[in-house]
Amino acid sequence: MSNLEAFGKSIIENDSDAKRLIEAVVERTATYLSDEVFINVLEVKYNLNNEKQFDLRNLTSIITVEDHLKITLAFSYDKSLIEKIFEGYSQGIEVAADEVQSYIEESAGDMINIVLGNVLSQFQQSGKAFGISTPVIINGAKSIGKYKNTQFFTAELKSDFGIISICCITPGEQFRKQLKPERSDFIEKS
């Protein structure tokens, strides 16, 4: 069974799909850290029991993905880890001291964009398009709280340089049960 068949008409139609999505994001994130910025993931901890709150680290990047539903993904970085990722990105490039924070934030946005772009390409359906927001960067916030029936599925990736927490925020089960088979606002290819 292909990934598309496994995910049906929407990326997430049930809790099992949400778990598979976050596992794919974690796997690609670990590969990206290793291959692109030479940071090894030492340990991964999942909490797939629908968290009530997602505690944020020093810097957080957030993207919303939309097919039939809106899914929000957040990558939240320890300061030491995002600084090391930035060092890997900027290796050999001189950056003025007053521009470093801006480039660190840009690195966080680039990373979530690249990782999700790679993961979502596995689930692309012919004639369908995902809507993907521009990354939003949050600096110094404490947490994201659960609203109404949303669900949180989280993972923590521990490295030598700190932790990246990943959160997949989905609509509640009753919203997924109401999915319609097709939506007219998606462009169909003939």
Topology:
Blueprint (H helix, E strand, L loop, with lengths): L2 H5 L7 H23 L3 E11 L1 E3 L3 E8 L3 E8 L1 H11 L10 H22 L9 E2 L3 E4 L3 E3 L5 E9 L2 E9 L2 H5 L13
Antiparallel strand pairs: 1-8, 2-7, 3-4, 3-5, 3-6, 4-9, 8-9
Helix pairs in contact: 2-4, 3-4
Tags for this entry?
190 residues, single chain, globular, Chemotaxis protein chec, disordered C terminus, disordered N terminus, alpha+beta, two-stranded antiparallel sheet, 35% helix, 5 helices, seven-stranded antiparallel sheet
Could you explain how this protein is built, in words?
It is a single chain. The protein has 190 residues and is of the alpha+beta class. The chain is built from five helices and nine strands. The chain has a single domain (3-177), classed as Chemotaxis protein chec (3-Layer(aba) Sandwich), CATH 3.40.1550. Strand 3 and strand 4 form a beta hairpin. Helix 3 crosses helix 4. The longest helix is centred in the first third of the chain and has 23 residues, at 15-37.
